[in-house]
Each structure stands twice: as C-alpha cells, then as structure tokens.
Design a protein that fits this description.
There is one protein chain. The chain is an alpha/beta fold. The chain folds into 2 domains: 31 residues, no CATH class; 172 residues, Rossmann fold. The chain contains 9 helices and 7 strands; from the N terminus they run αααβββαβαβαβαβαα. The strands form 2 sheets. Strands 5-4-1-6-7 form a 5-stranded parallel beta sheet, sandwiched between helices. It is elongated and about 85 Å long.
Length: 241
C-alpha cells in the first residue's frame, strides 16, 4: 500500500461517525428556514410587539371604562331597580351588601322606579339567601314588601341576571338601573344588555372595598369586561363553570 493510501485511511478513521451523522441531521432536519435567515425573525418579533401593544391598549381602555362607569349615576326613571347580591351572615347583610341596599333606599325614595328586584342565592349550609336578607332589610327601611321581587337562586352575576330577565319578561320590565359597587357596574350592565335589557347604572359610593383591594377589583373587572366583549358573557360564564 502506498504512503498516500495509508494517509487517506488514517484520515477517514479519525472522523467520528457520530459527528458526521450529527452534521447531516443539522443540515437536513434542523435547517434554519430561508425566511428566518432573510430577516423573518424581525418581522415576527415586530408582529408580536404590535399585538402585545394592542392587547395592553385594549385592557387599558377597558380599565378606564370600568373606572368611569363606576362614577356615573343615572338620574332618570326606569321600570325597576336591580341590586346585585353580596354576602350575608345568617340573614344580616354584609357591609358590602348593606352599602348597596342603602343606595337602593335612596333611589326608591327619589321615585326612580315602582319595582325593586333583589338578587342572590345562598351558600351550602346558609339558612338565608342574599335576596331574602336584602328583602328583609329593605322592608325595615320602609320599602313596601309588595314592590320587591326576589331572585334567590343565582350564584353568579350572570346567573342572577339571567333569572332576572325571566322574571322581568313576565312583568313587562325592560328598562332597569343596576346597583352595585363601582368596580362591578360596567360588567353587569354589559351582561344585562346582552340579555336584552336597556340597562343603566348607579353605584354605591359607601362600600367597604377601599385602597389596594379596590384597585385589584378594578383590574379583575377590566379583564372580565375585555374578555366578555370578545367572547360574550354567556360563553365566559360557561367556560368558568
């Protein structure tokens, strides 16, 4: 065998088979796409950046609308005042529910509507529903029991408003004002509109939710509003349950 042949054999023996296979796989399987090498990654990054900015802007607009709606108060007349339920303690309204009910009494005394609809079911083990606790308190404050309609099976804002829609259709009620905490009113108004109501809002300003907790609730409600507008509040409710 010639010296050149020996050198060639030595060279071939020194090249690991694994290295050759890895190089082949890298070229054929993990080959960087042409569009990426031509700057496609910049366009992809740009699209992601623009999309992120649009999402942030959309959320920011929703947050501002939650804030502004919570500070608006409808002054006209409607068919019914609808108060959203909150926690009760063995028949006694919680401070949060109490603030909402006191605002309902104010609106009732102003003659805003001939009917008051109270909402909210109960938790397992509770003797009273939120609607029952609300009814008892309103009667104590001088609202006639005959004008109060109770929706006492709902366990979420959407469920309660669905039930209210059924009760309202039987009585020809279509124009309502919704009473709740400021951060909550935009979402329930949009829900009511999705259910066919001509809905307005009047928020209580004496609720116990303050400071950081209030800001956190605004953020949560803004997310709920933003998602509900895209998917529909009924679909969001079904996904959550």
């Amino acid at each position: 065998m010639t010296e050149m042949g020996a050198e060639n054999i030595g060279t071939l023996d020194e090249t690991p088979v694994g290295t050759t296979l890895a190089s082949t796989l890298q070229r054929r399987v993990f080959k960087v796409p042409t569009w990426w090498r031509r700057g496609g990654w910049r366009r992809l990054f740009g699209c992601c950046t623009v999309l992120s900015m649009l999402i942030v802007m959309y959320f920011s607009v929703s947050l501002f609308q939650v804030w502004s709606t919570g500070r608006s108060h409808y002054q006209g007349s409607v068919d019914a005042i609808v108060v959203m339920g909150a926690a009760q303690y063995d028949g006694r309204p919680s401070p949060q529910l109490l603030a909402r009910l006191d605002h309902v009494v104010e609106l009732w005394n102003q003659g805003m509507a001939p009917v008051v609809i109270v909402t909210g079911g109960n938790q397992p083990g509770d003797r009273f529903t939120e609607a029952e606790s609300s009814t008892n308190y309103l009667v104590e404050q001088g609202v006639p029991a005959a004008v109060i309609i109770a929706e006492d099976t709902g366990h979420s804002s959407w469920e309660s408003l669905q039930n209210v829609a059924s009760l309202a259709s039987e009585r020809g009620i279509s124009r309502i004002v919704l009473v709740s905490d400021p951060y909550h009113t935009l979402r329930v108004r949009l829900m009511a509109e999705e259910l066919g109501f001509q809905a307005y809002t009047s928020s209580t300003q004496t609720g116990p939710v303050k400071g950081w907790n209030n800001f956190k609730r605004h953020l949560q409600e803004a997310a709920g509003v933003a998602l509900g507008r895209v998917l529909g509040f009924e679909r969001v409710e079904s996904l959550a349950s």
